[in-house]
Amino acid sequence: MGNTFGQLFRVTTFGESHGGGIGVVIDGCPPRIEISEAEIQRELDRRRPGQSKLTTQRKEEDRCELLSGVFEGKTLGTPIAILVRNKDARPEDYSEIARKFRPSHADYTYEAKYGIRNWHGGGRASARETIGRVAAGAIAKKTLSALYADFELVAYVTQIHEVTAKIDRSTVTMNDVEKNVVRCPDAAAAKKMISLVEQIRDAGDSVGGVIECVARGIPAGLGEPVFDKLEADLAKAMLSIPAAKGFEIGSGFAATQMRGSQHNDAFETRAGRIRTTTNNSGGVQGGISNGEDIYFHVAFKPPATIALEQKTVTTSNEETELVARGRHDPCVLPRAVPIVEAMAALVLCDHALRQRAIAWSVEALNR
Questions:
Q1: Which domains occur in the chain, in start order?
Q2: pLDDT tens-digit profile of 331-340?
């Protein structure tokens, strides 16, 4: 039941990291949205392993197969199925963890919940599961662009460990983000981040950091209070990403150090529209978008798999030690950028369709 996300734009992912493949079924996508395998593939290429020396060297092309729901380059309004086959799985790399629990992984909790687990990699808990999310996100982005002419969505790395970047969220573009392997638009900070990740990788350790995401061109009105507030659904979406440990929108935790007179976003009229002079709310007030840029931060922990010896226990409760095997990222941030974008697109697309349903209902009642 926990494998489906969304209300009207519904996404169900399936597959394991070392199984036959990973896939997604998208239900509720409107008809006649232009989409191609090439557009989906472009997003998957940003997420795939082996992009640089900073990522896992697992060799997967992650070629997508569009199985249904699209005809002559347009969505049909029927379920869309996308499959990516695993090509470079090496389950033998994980034989040691068949009877050992990896620290801070999902090994113990999955076995505690189900009484069984797939120890070939992380199974469903692996970040490889996010292939389906990114594929679905590509379609959600195209749908949002069809609904809102000014829609833009950009995510980027703002911090890795103690290295922080200075980025103007109002002007940053996808081209700025893709200029370096760490996906940080601040060139000076990016250079330091790359050097740091290389040092950490060579030491057999790992580091975490922060990704910021901004959505532009979203009109006022998206969000379904009280339990499906826009920021609440964004928080759930982001915290469902592997290794995500924190979420804040707008001023976030910094608001705790401000007074109401400092934090309130005053209203004004600009170009005939109601606008706010500041955006401490992050584009969401009362759980509903207000027409300003929506921006938020997601904190990612250091990857749990490291090349250093760690203490653990066996499935028989015996204390032992574990030396990591396999191919893993010393820092997930660069590859997490398209995943954050995808999950944001899924939330925004779902709420956009829900808002249109309300608008159509009101229009019908007023006829």
A1: 4-365 (3.60.150.10)
A2: 999 999 999 9
